[in-house]
Amino acid sequence: MEPIIQFSGADILGGDSVVIYGLDMAIFPGDFVYIVGKVGSGKTSIIRTMTAENRLAQGEGTVCGFNLRDIRTKDIPMLRRRLGVVFQDFQLLMDRSVEANLEFVLRATGWKDRIAIDTRIGEVLEDVGMGTKAHKMPHQLSGGEQQRIAIARALLNHPQAILADEPTGNLDGETADGILKLLRKLNEEGTAIVMVTHNRSIFERFPGRVFSCADERCTEIIEDDTFELDLTI
Prior knowledge:
Blueprint: E1 5-14, E2 17-27, E3 32-37, H1 43-50, E4 56-63, E5 66-67, H2 76-81, E6 83-87, H3 98-108, H4 114-127, H5 143-155, E7 161-165, H6 173-188, E8 192-197, H7 200-205, E9 209-214, E10 217-221
Parallel strand pairs: 3-8, 3-9, 6-7, 7-8
Antiparallel strand pairs: 1-2, 1-4, 4-5, 9-10
């Protein structure tokens, strides 16, 4: 089984400076992976490198078959179509309905057939338990509902992996649990999940592989290891 995402000896940039040295990471279909650490430890920079928003400073990196060292600018949209990205602040377009938000993404990624667009929107909304919300405006939804719509948006192009950057950071505990259970469900159905968090209770309650960022390194924590994570903001 080939990895969806792989880094070998990769130096990760945050702005113009290296924030993570020598990253080794392989993420396979069906994996649920956490990237944890303090705020500013390089977690989000790793996600931005996966989406080719940040260039790879050194080493090797491949994502969904694209080599990050020599990816052409014109190929970056195709890479991003193979990933779904979920943000802490939802990033919905507030001036249009849920359905229009999702249609905008599909048309921007090459979908043209009206029936196919409507069918796919209905499918992803059902997948996230929001099948009756298509005509709602984002401001009419709760924070948890908006995040479910953001996850539906991430699913539109059948991604190989979902990258979730602090997806529960703006949610209360009960709502956050609902989002985590949804991500687990999607993972069990075959989608790899890579989730950034500094909330230790999340990966203790919803176990997965854990990569810890600290002191300009990011290393996997093996299950049998004894470790202490300082995740203080």
